[in-house]
Design goal:
Largest sheet: 5 strands, parallel
Radius of gyration: 19 Å
Number of strands: 12
Order of helices and strands: EEHEEEHEHHHHHHEEHEEHEEH
Distance between the termini: 50 Å
Number of domains: 2
Shape: globular
Length: 297
């Protein structure tokens, strides 16, 4: 089995195309949405152009108004979050075969992205039965993932900047999750999340609720916290939760809430139910959500 080079990226922070070997598959990375200092024109488009003919395929399931521009290019398999709750289910045997030889996979940094990469390496076959369903449950935060997937997701959230851990997880998945020693390493990493979850629960006591929007400001130099947990705790109290810390302003709603944050905030693309922008946009975001002026988003 050929094991391509694995490189990790996000919509806002893509690797330099010149550093990627050979033909490249991009998996589970959205087009930049004009939030957080990155846009399609300044980030995504230059990356696509720099790859040129070396781009073998781009598979993604996030909304973006620029999808239409690539509708006639068979290399781009672009859908919406409503069509596919997670990316691995879009990585099929047929698509892997049609793309041909891939030397480098550039994938997102979460369970969804890593599972997509592993499934690609396995020729479009799930790393284990139910992996696609686990990815949907984790990426939408709806339903309950398997114990194995939950451990992997927790490990990634506990060590959010650890590319070595991400690489280990991809290999673990490609090896059909059979390496017990590697699983114990992942499990140990997942235990580190408990302290971050406790910090999130403490911060959740400071949510302020207005017009079905829960807002909390994380004080500077606070203990590390799990943003996913904090956002979900806010959603237990209001339709939309908003978390402001030193790095970002993050807005979220349940996947089944019917809320379209991209429309509410006037963004070009991304996830309709989870958006991160720069902290300086706080006043404008709260106004658009109805938190500041007494109207509901």
């Amino acid at each position: 089995m050929a094991f391509p080079k694995i490189v990790f990226g996000t919509p806002r922070k893509l690797p330099k195309a010149k550093n990627l070997d050979g033909r490249v598959a991009v998996l589970d990375i959205a087009f930049a949405a004009g939030a957080g200092g990155a846009s399609f024109e300044t980030t995504t488009k230059p990356f696509i152009h720099a790859l040129g003919e070396r781009l073998a395929i781009w598979v993604d399931h996030h909304d973006h108004e620029m999808h239409a521009a690539y509708a006639n290019d068979p290399r781009f398999v672009l859908r919406t979050k409503a069509q596919h709750g997670a990316c691995p289910e879009m990585v099929t045997v047929e698509r892997v075969a049609q793309a041909g030889v891939v030397n480098t996979i550039c994938c997102h940094t979460d369970f969804d992205g890593l599972c997509s990469a592993a499934k690609w390496i396995l020729g479009g076959i799930e790393p284990y039965q139910g992996a696609d369903a686990d990815a949907r449950a984790i990426d939408t935060r709806m339903g309950r993932p398997s114990a194995r997937a939950n451990v992997i997701d927790r490990a990634l959230r506990a060590r959010p900047r650890d590319d070595a851990l991400r690489g280990l997880i991809v290999k673990f998945l490609v090896d059909r999750c059979e390496d017990v020693a590697v699983y114990k390493t992942i499990e140990s990493a997942s235990e580190l999340l408990r302290a971050r979850e406790d910090s999130a629960r403490e911060l959740s006591h400071h949510y302020e609720i207005r017009n079905d929007v829960a807002f909390v400001r994380v004080p500077p130099r606070s203990a590390p916290y799990d943003k996913t947990v904090l956002l979900m705790l806010g959603q237990e109290r209001a339709r939309i939760s908003v978390v402001l810390d030193e790095q970002a302003l993050t807005v979220a709603a349940r996947f089944d809430s019917g809320v379209d944050l991209l429309r509410c905030l006037g963004l070009a693309g991304g996830m309709p139910t989870v958006v991160s922008v720069e902290p300086k946009e706080l006043d404008e975001v709260l106004r658009k959500l109805g938190y500041a002026d007494g109207t509901s988003a």
